[in-house]
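Chain A, query sequence.
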Amino acid sequence: MTTDAPAPSDLAFVPFVSVQNMMRLVQSIGVESFIEGIAAYLEEDFRNWEAFDKTPRVASHSAEGVIELMPTSNGEVYGFKYVNGHPKNTREGLQTVTAFGLLAQVDTGYPVLLSEMTMLTALRTAATSALVAKNLMPKGSHTMAVIGNGAQSEFQCLAMKKLCGIRRVKLYDIDPAATAKAAKNLEGQGLEVVSCTTAQDAIEGAQILTTCTADKQCATILSDNMVGAGVHINAIGGDCPGKTELHVDILKRSDIFVEYPPQTRIEGEIQALPDDYPVEEVWEVIAGRKQGRTSESQITLFDGVGFAIEDFSALRFVRDRIKGTPFMEQLDMLADPDDPRDLFGMLQRSSGE
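Chain A, predicted structure.
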């Protein structure tokens, strides 16, 4: 006797946002508005920081790069991101960073969202940088230098424009083709764009200095004599052990702000400093518990390595924004038998015989 195989139940389906749908979603909202939306969710979660499970990311390092898992939960929703970082990939025509992420309900363990995060990570990294800069930059900041003009650079520029009021960006990369790419992409975006031939030229007259280089090495992108008083440094390239961008003497002249110290001390610029070197946590500044910039001459430094709560915020924003839109599809991801104890029976019936 032949019977029809059981159709998936409603509980079997999980909303999935592909790369194509993520790009369509971003375009429907607008890049700057999308970044602003993520920043609002980031601010909410930073203010709720103490409710989250927090752990340094679980990393598997190799000579070529790193593969990481970044988990967190606020007690109601659990989230994680899979992400890699392989600087050599660019030379092979591949992305340095790829990622995907998931949200799940804590009370059932059932996933409620699966999403690409290669594009979303770039957006949330920019949103984080700009949110922190908004709280730490000198008053009246209007110019940003971007050292490293790879995949993240344009997102950083547009985020700083939207959240911080930046009107002028100065670009530099050791590869002139990268600078030309970034400058072309930023045409018509409401920014004055200046292409520079040295890092020193780029930082002259800039109040915000962003470094976002990819090489997995202890580099000196900015030397001590290049950085004057009264600036905010947004150092986001040093995101794994053995990878830095700033001369250590710059750190010693700066007030340093980090996401999660146990992770940043392993991966960030401050891996070059003693384990007990004093730093501030950015969530406390955003939540109003600590003061950020205290003087015009102060050098503030955001040692940003990326933390799981930021991905959680970005995924929450996407989950809320895809409701009622065509920018997702339903994946049959969960086995959901009529009798939860009869998974084998569900398998047998799937043959339709």
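The chain has a mean pLDDT of 94. The first strand starts at residue 13 and ends at 17.
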